[in-house]
Design a protein that fits this description.
By secondary structure, this protein is mostly helical. The chain contains seven helices and two strands, in the order H-H-H-H-E-E-H-H-H. It comes from Coilia grayii (Gray's grenadier anchovy).
Amino acid sequence: MVDMIALQALEQSLQSEEEIDKRINYLGVIGGMNTKDCVWRIMGSVFTNQLARHLNWRGINGKVALSKLKIREIIIRAVRKNPLASGASESDVESVMKRWLQLATDREGGRKRRMLEKEN
């Protein structure tokens, strides 16, 4: 997803169990070698880094709370579809999701850009 409008549209589309199951099945085949790899791949396919910068887990500092969105449950269920991550607990998956969100500002050259700004 590119922006908040697309995220809101996705959340609206997740009203029926049929649509939820469709999304879980789609994301569940992305795969990964372990829980972390699977979560990172799924999160990267669902959210752009630009959008991820406007999200956090609890919705503080004017950001949107991922913990309150329906896509959170879909990501957790999609991770568990992977045989290598099927035993992951909800808190394990949520921990990796939180870390992925925390690092959104560092991806795509964000860390290097901040260091250059600091030097100047």
